[in-house]
Amino acid sequence: MMRLSVLMTMHNAGRYVAEAVGSLLAQDLADFELIVVDDGSSDDSVKIVRDLGDKRIRLVAPGRLGRTPALQLALGMAQADYVAVLDADDTCRPDRLALQCAFLDAHPQVALLGSYCRLVDASGALLEEFRPPTDHAGILACMPLYNPFAHSAVMYRRQAALAAGGYRARYAYAQDFALWLRLVARHQTANLPEFLVDLRQHGSQMTTSPAFLASRLRDGIHLISQARKLPGIPQAARRESRGFYQSYDRDYLDCLCEQGLFCRALGFLGGHLLREGPSSHAAALVRQLWGRATAPTGR
Prior knowledge:
The chain is of the alpha/beta class. It has helices at 17-25, 45-52, 67-77, 96-106, 136-142, 158-163, 175-186, 213-228, 235-258, 262-276, 280-294, and strands at 4-10, 32-38, 57-60, 82-85, 91-92, 110-120, 126-130, 155-157, 188-200.
């Protein structure tokens, strides 16, 4: 059996995908398969990957599935014990796969491993550095506050991910964080203190699209609520995360009202009251919804 399966999904990634795949084909560790799922691209992404002509690449183009089903398809195709991920617009250091495989070999209790990352712009210039906690206790403490694993920087044990349900379809945006929550609850995790991956930030990404704002906020509300309930979360982290949770509530309500979806907003508010019960925050949400619903339309 091969050492490693690497997952990549792409949608109209023609500008960057050759560089992304090239950074994998140049890895010090060569014993891997690269599973590329094209998610309905209308540009030349498929041709670019196919023309690379590397036998390690398994390219499939099932049409437009959406990010989460495409990831789940790729995970289902994986054959190796270890699975790594790289997005089609990101790149990784030549020793990334070797270092992460060696760490998982040496730490059988760790099921999910990430690393430090550099955030770069469309041209590759450094924007900032991402330095998440490296030990499991530190990772656990920050789960209710932010995602401590960059998806393009992770390597995980395939069987652990499958046992945890893989990438669940209900999460259109934060499917990775949803999986991390389940893995963190069941296994040890870690991040390598090495800048192994460059994460590209650019305006054409799905995750920066205003069309996905409601999905991002909805996923955030649900997953922060789950993260706050994880066993072992320090009380200080639970208290600090309450502000994040409430801000997601407010922003999601605003997002629905902006789209004129007042019935959905009312349903969200009713669900919040059923889950959380009466509170000053709930009262503020009621006032917010009433204010938006009764505001003059300008006509």
